[in-house]
Amino acid sequence: MNILTLIKISWRNVWRNKLRSFVVIISVVFGLLGGIIIIAMSYGLNEERMNNAVETYLSHIQIHNKSFSEEYNIKYTIDNLEGIENAINNDIRVVSYSKRIILNGMLSNSNGSYGIQVKGVDPIEEVKVTNTYEKIIEGEYFKSEKDNTILVGKKLADRLNLKLKSKVVITFQDENYELTSLLYRVEGIFRSGNSRYDEANVFVKNNSITKNLPNFSGYHEIPILLTDIELRNQVKNDLVSKNSNNLIEGWDDISKDLAYANEMLAAVLYIFMMIILSALSFGIVNTMLMAILERRKEIGMLMSIGMSRFKIFLMISFETMFLSIVALPIGLILSYSIVEYYSVVGIDLSIVEAGLENFGVGTRLYFKVPNQEYFIVAIMVFVISIISSIFPSVRALKINPVEATKTI
Amino acid sequence: MIETKNLSKIYNPGKFEVKAVNNISALFKEGEFTSVVGPSGSGKTTFLNCVGGLDQPTSGEVIISGENITKLSGSKIINYRLNNIGFVFQAYNLIPVLSAKENIEMIMLLQGVDENNRISRTNELLNQVGLYEMRNRRPSQLSGGQQQRVAVARALASKPKFILADEPTANLDSKSTSNLLDIMSQLNEAENITFIFSTHDQRVIDRARRVVTLEDGKIVNDNKK
After folding, report:
1. CA-to-CA distance for B64 and B1, rounded, in angstroms?
2. What is the pLDDT at residue A200?
3. Does residue A13 belong to the interface with chain B, where contact is any CB pair within 8 Å?
C-alpha cells in the first residue's frame, strides 16, 4: 500500500464525523489566533516602548566623554567636538544630531525639591533628534525670547504643583564642585508617554547655562539619529576608532533593560505559544482517542487482514495531523488579517493609561508580528501535531484484533 | 492443506482455567467446504482464530502447507495472514470511507500488487459477486447482503490459500444468505478455494460438504457428506 492511499484513507476518516472534526479545528484556529494576538500585542508594546524611548530621549547613538559617564562632573565635556561633528556631517547614514549640556541637580520650588537631569539644548537642533516638542500638553516649546525658560514633565509638574510661569530653582555642582543655582520659569509641560522620564528630566536652553557659567564651554552629550536603527553598530564602530576619549554607545548599550526586554520577548512568547498549543494538543488527542474507540472493530479488521502495525500507526498519525494542518492556514489567515487591521487602526487602551505610562508607552497599541513569527508558529503547530499523533497511534496499536472484531 | 496437531487454547491458565480449545487434531484438505458447528461456547471461534493466526494457541501446532504458523510472530504472521488467509467477518467490517471497489482493492494495495493487475482482479471479483454496477458505492449505500458479498470479494482478492468465515450469514436474511452461499460454492468449485465456516445456520450446514461438530472445545463429530 503506497503512502498516498494511506493519506487518502486518513483524510476521509477525518471527515467521518464532521462536527467533531470541526470542533477540534475551530479550537486550534482560536488557539492560534489567541497566541498570535498575544505575540502581536507584545511585539507592539515592546516596539512602541523602544521607539518611544529612541525618539524621546535615547536616539540611536549617544556620545559622551568617558569621564562624564563615570562622574557626571560638568567639566568633562565631549573631546574633539570639531572632529566628531565633521565625521557626523560627512556620514550619509546620519540623519541628524544635536548637542546637549547635561546637569544633574535638584529642582526646587516652594512645594519641595526633586532630583532631576537638566538637558541644555539648542531648541532648533533638538527637534531634529527628539519629539519632545510634539509632546507639549500645556504652554509652548521654547517660543519665549527669554533664555531662562524651562520645559518640565507632567509627572514632575504634578509632584511639585508646577503651573505655567511657575518659578523653579535648579541647583547643581559646577566644574569646581561648588553649588550653583539658576532660576527658571516654566514655559511648557510635556507628557512623553513615559511617566518615569517625565518625572526626572527637564529641558532648558543651553544659553541659559553658558551665560551663567562663564568658565564653562562645550557639550556633554551628542544624540544621533540614523537612517536605520540597525546601522547603529556600524556607525558606532566607525566613530569609536576616531574617539579614544569619548564613550560612544548605541541605544541598547545605554538602556540595557530595553535591550534585554527585546531579547527576552521572543523566548517568552515561544514558551507562551507552546503552552497554548500543548493545551490544544490535549483536545486533539482526546478526539482521536474517541475516534479510535469507535473504530476498534475496523482497526482490528485491518490488523486481521494483514495491515502492518506501522501502517496503522501512520494512518492514525495522518488523521491527527490533518486536524491541525487544516486548522493551520485558517488560523494563520484569520490572525494575519486581524493583526494587519490593528497594526493600522490600533487598539485604544486608555483605560489602563497610568500603567502604560509607567511602562513607557502610549495609550494606543498597534499590533505587530514579524513575518518570520508566522512561519515559526506554523512549524510549532506542525511539531505539536506530530507529537499529539503519537499517543493515539500507539493506543491504536494496542488493539487486539481478536477482541476488537469479536469474531474472526 | 491445513493441519492442527493437539491444538489447545486455555484462558486464565493456572487460575480459573477455561479450555476453549482442548487438544484438537484435524486435517482440512485443499478445496474443502467445511462448517464448524456447535453450541455457543463450544470453541468454534477460538479454534478458527488459532487456525487463522489471529490468536496464539496455548499448545499444539497449526501447519498450513507444511509451515507451522504458530511459530511465526510479529510482522511475519501479519504478512502470512495477508498473503495466505482470507477472512470474512460476521459484521462485514468494511471500511466505511472507501467504496466497494476500494475496499476490495485495499488488500491488494497492502500486498503491493501493480495497478493493472489490481484493477482487473477487482473488476473480476466484483463481477463474480454480482456487484460491478455498485462498485462505487460506499458500504452505507449497500444492503447487508451486498456488504457481505463485498467482504467475500475482499477476502478473495489476495488469492488466499483458504478462507475463514465466522458466522458469515448471521446478519443476513434468507435470500441474501442463499445468494452468498451460491457465490461461495461457485468460487469453491471453480477456483478450488478452501472455505471453513463457523456457523449456527442450518442453511450453511446443509450446503457444507463436511461438518465438524465441537463441544467443550473438542471435536465430537466429523461428518463428511
Report:
1. 6
2. 93
3. yes
Cβ burial, residue A293 (10 Å; 0-12/13-18/19+): exposed
- Please report, as a single letter, which amino acid is at residue B204: V
Q: Beta-carbon neighbour count of residue A7 at 10 Å?
A: 16
* pLDDT averaged per 10 residues, chain A (length 408): 80 84 88 88 85 86 88 87 91 94 93 94 92 90 92 94 94 87 95 86 94 89 92 89 84 83 80 85 85 85 85 87 88 94 89 72 83 87 85 87 68
Q: How many residues does this entry show for chain B?
A: 225
DSSP secondary structure of A71-130? H--TT-PPTTHHHHHHHHHT-TTEEEE--EEEEEEEEEETTEEEEEEEEEE-HHHHTTT-
What are A362's three cell numbers?
Answer: 502610549
CB contact under 8 A, B107 and A12: no
Question: Between A297, A307, A407, which is nearest B110 by CB?
Answer: A307
Any domain includes B123: yes
- CA atoms within 13 Å, Cβ hemisphere of A210: 13
- Shortest CA gap B153–chain A (Å): 13
B-chain residues near A15 (CB < 8 A): 97
Q: What is the CA radius of gyration of chain A?
A: 31
Whole-angstrom distance, CA of residue B36 vs CA of residue B24: 13
Q: Which of B160, B163, B180 lies closest to B171, judged by CA?
A: B180
**Helix (H) / strand (E) containing A205:** strand A201-205
- Give the distance from residue A327's alpha carbon to the nearest chain B alpha carbon, in angstroms: 22
How many domains, chain B? 1
Among residues A12, A4, A14, which one has the least CA distance to residue A385? A14
Backbone φ/ψ region at A289: left (φ over 0), alpha (ψ -120 to 50), beta: alpha
Would B10 be classed as within a structural domain?
no
Q: Dihedrals φ, ψ of B72, to 5°?
A: -85, 145
A56 three-class SS? helix
**Is there a contact between A59 and A129 (Cβ–Cβ < 8 Å)?**
yes
Residue A387: CA count within 13 A, CB half-sphere: 14
Strand ranges across the sheet with B162-166: B85-88, B162-166, B194-198, B33-37, B210-215, B218-224
List all residues 6 or more positions away from A256 whose beta carbon is below 8 Å from its beta carbon. Answer: none
Domain that holds residue B97: 31-44+74-224
Taking alpha carbons only, the member of B4, B46, B34 closest to residue B193 is B34
DSSP assignment, residue B75?
Answer: H
Contact residues on chain A for B90, CB-CB shorter than 8 A? 406-407
For cell 550619509, name the residue.
A92
Domain-located, residue B16:
no
Q: Give A 242-301 residues with CB within 8 A of chain B.
A: 297-298, 300-301
Whole-number Å distance between alpha carbons of B167 and B183: 16
Q: Is residue B110 part of a domain?
A: yes
Instruction: State which H helix or E strand residue A6 sits in.
Output: helix A3-14
The CATH number covering residue B104 comes to: 3.40.50.300
Residues in chain A: 408
Beta-strand ranges (E) seen in chain B are: 2-11, 18-28, 33-37, 59-64, 67-68, 85-88, 162-166, 194-198, 210-215, 218-224
Backbone angles phi, psi at A31, to 5 degrees: -60, -45
Q: What ipTM was assigned to the predicted interfaces of this complex?
A: 0.82
